[in-house]
Amino acid sequence: MKKENTYNQEVNGDEGFHAGEGYPSCEGTPCDNVTDEQPTDADSVAEPTDEEPLVEPEPSEEKEEQIDWRDKYIRLQAEFDNFRKRTLREKMDLVQTGGSDVLKAILPVLDDMQRAIEASEKSEDIAALREGERLVVQKFIDTLRQKSVTEIEAKGEPFDENLHEAVARFAAGEENKGKVIDVVQRGYKLGERVLRFAKVVVGE
């Protein structure tokens, strides 16, 4: 046994093995750097540094659709606002232009009326003056007709509340019952729209 121990010391030197173990002996040498801990995968992974760029998440399809619909709504609202302003401006221009056209058409009739008044002051021919007045009135009627203004037919027609306004009722016999027997004030239409109702006397 003594010879066997001596042989082990000669083979292994001072760094002999502990009995029954396969680890080297730490006698006479520092063993502070010997640990039982083994490196893990987490320790070997390098932590990200501040210099690495941050990748922003891509917007989802639902978010992109919301943005698209919002842009469409804003454009549609702007287009509608422009359409409303343009329509209002066109209506104002139409009213002003239409009024000026009618006034320009009436001015020649006014000139004839003024000439008729001057002629009546110098002439004593009643028949000529009456004929001149009739021509002026007929010219005025023709001018209104060109602007789609027509007189409402009333006398002798059945009473129509959509065209006539009864200001009086008069007993005129069975044959004139419900008919217009007299016109107090003429009525006029612009196209199919009533400008002024005809004031009439209705028989009963």
How are the secondary structure elements laid out?
Blueprint lengths: L1 H11 L28 H4 L16 H62 L3 H21 L2 E3 L12 E7 L9 E6 L2 E3 L2 E4 L1 E6 L1
Parallel strand pairs: 2-6
Antiparallel strand pairs: 1-4, 3-6, 4-5
Helix pairs in contact: 3-4
What can you tell me about this protein's structure?
With 204 residues, this protein is of the alpha+beta class. Among the domains are: 68-147, Alpha-Beta Complex (Hemagglutinin Ectodomain, Chain B), CATH 3.90.20; 150-204, Nucleotide Exchange Factor Grpe, Chain A, domain 2 (Roll), CATH 2.30.22.10. Helices cover 48% and strands 14% of the residues. The strands form 2 sheets. A 3-stranded antiparallel beta sheet has the order 1-4-5. It is elongated. The chain starts with a helix and ends with a strand. The model is unreliable at 1-23, 29-35 and 41-45 (pLDDT under 50).
Summarize the structure.
The protein is of the alpha+beta class and about 200 residues long. The protein has 4 helices and 6 strands.
